[in-house]
Every structure is written in structure tokens, then in C-alpha cells.
Amino acid sequence: MSSTRALLTTASTQLGLFTRAQALGAGFSASAVDRRLGEGHWEPVLPGVYRQAGGLTSRRQLLLAAVLWAGPDAVASHATAGHLWGLDGCRDDGPVELSASRTRGLSAEGLSVHRPVRLDPADVTVTEGIPVTTVARTLLDLGGVVSSYWLEAALEDALRRGLVTIAELVARVDDLGVRGRPGVAAVRRVIEERGDAAPLESALEVRVWRLLRLSGLPLPRRQYPVEAGGASYRLDFAWPHERVAVEADGYAVHGGREAFQSDRVRLTALAGAGWRVLHVTWEDCSRRPEPFLRDLRRALAGVAA
Fold this sequence. Notes:
Helices cover 44% and strands 19% of the residues. By secondary structure, it is α+β, with helices and mostly antiparallel strands. Strand 7 (124-127) and strand 8 form a beta hairpin.
């Protein structure tokens, strides 16, 4: 296989990228590498990391370039890893975040390298061709840098989508907790507070759950299944003995005529089965929680609306 074909094969598995070491390993001499760079056939993305000139660029390519530049043990981590896993609250508009065993010399605009750390192999995997911390390790890292709310939202999202289990989280908490890793205490607290309850379905449900925990009211069952009107439904939060439920209403949940009609059928069936359903929005939770909590207390006490 020719040097060019060998290098193109490598680049095809790395979002069009290759390193100087990989070019040399494919059979190019150092002078040939420099000549192709000087003539504009290849262009640098980061020091020692190149792509074919005119190649398409993307955020993912920049991320992988940063990982390749940072060394063989570097991985995407923290919020960047959270975004790769699609976790709630992990946006892609901040610096590219990496974890690596070295940080000296790794300075570039839009790049944040966390303190030198040698990751356990159990904490590293690959997704979309990019080395990244596992979901469990990502959550532990997030625990040290994000608010408790967004940590809980990301954790519930990961559990709901089957990206991680409580057992896997507990195992990493127990192991890394001995080493004093930041974020361990925060993740342990979320695990203890949620117990073995069903995963929440959205960031809004997490906000409602946190509000209910602080309200002094009896805690409800989460994702409670019910039969009503010959159909099966699931209630976001339910107090079965009192036949009271709370539904978290996000903007995207009830759009469209078909969804609206389905909601009406559902509410009618639940009312016919004796359920009193209260609705709560993001605005209710964040700006005016007291009216909602007042209505919920009255409902749980059996006071008519």
C-alpha cells in the first residue's frame, strides 16, 4: 500500500485528520511532510495534527484534533463528553474540554485541559470515533463543575436512556471516592436522594422533583403506571392513596392538534378514574412555586378546587 493510501485510510477513521507521527509511520519522510504543508496540500489544525487542504471542518473534528494533539491518553471529558453522550444540560458552545496526563504545552484558544490525570481504563471508551470518558466517569467529572440541578438532570437522563446503571455509578463512586476525586460526593448525594425510583423523563421533571423534596410534602411515586378508561397511562408524579397526580408540562410536549386531542382523552379518562391532576410548568417552578404548592397541598388534603 502506498504512503498516501495508508495515510488516507488512517484519516478516514479520524474525521479526516492525521498526525505527524502517523504520516511518518505511513512512510512519508519528515521533509515530505514539511513540503506538503508548505505547498498547501495539507493544513495544520493544531500543532502536529493535519488534514487535507480544503477539507470540511466541524466541531467534532476540532475535538478529535485536540485529543490527538494532547497525547495518546487524552480523552474528551466533562461538559464536552456530556455533549457527546447527549446528556441534558451539556451544551457544545463552550471550550473543548479534555482530560490528559499532561497539561504543559497544551494551550490553545477554545481548549480547556483539566489538571493532569491518568484515567483508569474502566473510565475510557470511544464514541463516534472520539476517545471519551464513560458516562459514569463523565457524571462524576460533571459533579465537580456544574450545579447540583444540572448534575441531577444529566444523571436522570443517562439512567432513562440506559447509558448507565445505578450499580455502575456506585462502583465508580466507591472506587474514585477513595482517591478523593472532585464530584464524587455530589454524585453520591444524588444517588442517595433518588433511591431506587424510576428515572425522570426531562430536565423539567427534575426541577419539579427538587421542588417537591424541599416542600415538606410527602414524596410522590415517580413515573407511576395507572389504568383508566380502558387504557394504560403513566403519571409523572403520583400520590396513589389520595388519587392526586402532578404532570410537568414542557413547551414541546403538547404541540399539535393530535397531541392536544390525545391529552384531552387522557385527562378525561384519569378524571373518570377519580384522579385529580395538577399541571406545573417551568415558569411555575422557577418563578412562582408557591401557588402551585398551595394548590397541591389542598389537593392532597382533599380540598376541592
